Write the C-alpha cells for this entry.
Amino acid sequence: MRRILIMAALCMAAATTAAAQTQDWSAALAAKLESKASKTVDVNLDQSMLKFASSFLDQKDPDQAEAKRIVANMQGIYVHNFEFDKEGQYTEEDLAMLRAPLKEPVWSRIVNVKSKEEGQNVEVYFKKEGNKFIGLVVIATDEKSLTFVNIMGPIDPEDLAKLGGEFGIPDVEIGTDTKDKSKNKDKSKDKTTDKDDKDKSKDKTKDKDDDSKGDEL
Amino acid sequence: MSRRGIEILLVIALAMPCLASDREFKSVVSAIETEYNTKHMRIPMLKLATFGLHVAGTPAPSDMKLAVFEHLDLPPDASTGEIERKINSAMGGGWHPLVRVKARDEGQFTLIYANTDEKKMKMMVIVLQPDNATVVQVTLKESDVKKWIKDPKILGDNDRDNEKDKD
C-alpha cells in the first residue's frame, strides 16, 4: 500500500512538473502581452490530446503519416499567438523574458533568421538531453505579431518543417522552399542567419541553415 | 439486494458518463447566468433538429447541447478574468482547455474544451460577445475531428467565415 502511495505521489509530482514546464515562461508574459494585443490565440495540445488526434491521421496520406510518426512520442504542443494593432506593442524586454529560460547548455539556438525588409524574425531553440533533442521552442515575430511555440518531447530538427501547418503550428519553412530561389536572392541581402549550436545538431541542420538565407519565412 | 435494486444501480452506473458530461455543461451555463445576471434561452426541438440532419444525411454532431444568452449589454473591453476562472473551475476532470481566443476589437472571447474517449471527441465551445453568449457542447464524429486536426484554430476563429461572407 505504501509503495502504491509513493508511486502515486511520484506520478503526481511528475505531472505537476510537466504542467509547470509548459507554462513557466509563457504564462508570466502572457497577461502583459494580452493586455496590449488586439487578438490572442492559445492552442494547447497535451499528450492525451495528441495521442487522440494522431489516431485520426490518415496513414495513407504521406504528410499525415509523417506527422503521426513525429507526434507519436511527443508530450505536448503549445502555441501562443499575439496580434497587435500597431508596431512596438511588444518590446525587446518582452522577448528577453521569453528567451530567459532558453539558456545553454540545456537549450541551443539553432536557427536565428532576421529579415529587415519584412521585419520578420524566427528563432528556433532545441532542448538537449545527451545527444537527443527533447524539446523545441520557436519564437516568430514580425512588426505586429508574436508567436511562441513550445513542443515538448523528442523531435528531430528535420521534422520541424514537416510539422508546420499541422496542429496549429505556423508553417515555418527553413530551407525547404526551392521553388523560387531567384526571387529570394535579393531579399537574402537583408537577412542574417546565425548558427549557435556547437555539436551534432550543427551538422544536421547546416544545410537547412545555409539554404534559409534565401528563403521566405 | 433485490433484482430490481441491482437493475436500478446498473442503469445509474451506465448513465453516469452522460450525467457527468451534462454536469459540466450545466455548470458553465450556470456560471454565465450568475456572472452576467441573465438566463439562457430555451431552444425548442433542438434534439429533433439534430436527428433531422442525420436523417437527411447532412454532417452533424451526434449529440448537441446549446445555450444562448441574449442582451448581455457588456462593454467591449469588459474583463473576462473572473468568468474564465469560473468556467475553468466548472470543467471537471477529463476536459482539456484546447483553444482560447480573445479578440479585443470585437469584444469576443472564445474558449474551447475537449474531452476525448476511444473514438469520439466531445467539445464544448463557449463564445462570449458584448451582446450575447453561446455555449455549445457537441460530440464529434471522426470526419469532423479530421477537419479540426488540420487547423485547430478554425473552431475558435470566425474571421475566415466573415471573409467568405464578404466575398
